[in-house]
Amino acid sequence: MLLKRNTNPAELRISYDYGSSFETLDIPPFYSYSVAGWNIGEFITQNHSNNLSSYYLTHSLDFNQTFDTVFISDLGYFNMAAGADEGELYTYYKSYDTVNYYTMSYALYFSPDYGRNNRMVMTIDSLIIGDVYVFDFWEFVADNEPGVFYSIKKESSIVYANSGKTWIDYYRDYGETLVTTYFHHFRPDWYSQHTPVMDCEVASFDEHRVTLRWTEPELRSEEDLVGYQVYRGETLVSEELITETEYTDLYSGSGRLKYHVLAIYSDGTTSKSYNIAYCEKTESVLDEDLEAAITLSPNPTSGLVRIEGATVAEVKVYNALGQLVKTAQNTNQIDMGLLHEGFYLLRITATDGRVHVGKVTVGK
What residue ranges define each of the domains in the chain, with the CATH number in brackets? Predict the structure, then answer.
């Protein structure tokens, strides 16, 4: 089915044969930002309320002639895409996280019920480090198979036309499983022609240090890799060139940290890691002191984890890459049964303000 809006005369036309023929609908056309749903005439539409100072979603089954309000955003303007199953909706928000207006970050959310209930799937951050000749942007594409989507990151040159890089991440299980990444240079003679570090991750951390680990790039015959540099945010933290695939950053502060690695080649060029590794540090009780404070059980788990020894205000669950994958409030248990196998960090905030960080292994 294709839907076409004409402006002169103003009318809606519909085709049931991929555009070979159209017929005019006996309803007025609509001009709002809409995403087609899962049935003929079903649309999810974004609107803005001056009274609420907010964007909101409406759901319609009759070409936006009548509708219900299903979702009000407290994060501002957003984009959206329909999922594969009826009622599935992805929304994503962009923000400027530095003074450089072109440096963007995004937050992706998923809803199984037309936007009524949402959970964060992931955040996507810029890989630009103070480069005024580069801008980046991100796209999201949902597959027709439930739980499958593609995260597309692009980095382009402002100076050189048709020059840049593209990363396409293929996810399953609604973002729980990263299947593979496709990386491509456009005009690789611009900026860097070399293979990037593809899998930087936080291996461990405590109140005094963060240890990163990655795999050496699969080099082509003409490439000569000489070492690596490690960045915390936009700050170079490795004083000398690193030749190993592991680095420990001695950092005693708190807060959410992000790291990435540059591969350095003999011709003087660099290639940025495709991903950012995250770590959230606190100055409170960490792994080695957790046993005396609270208990997490069962551990390993294949479902519910009980939190004993504190009254919980909030629990945040992070995967091995430091990505926030689950959040719960005012509960002393959290269901991890739908998460991919592996270890996760739980950041637990008690009602008295104390923060605890513990590790839980998910095994099916």
Answer: 32-186 (no CATH), 201-281 (2.60.40.10), 287-362 (2.60.40.1930)
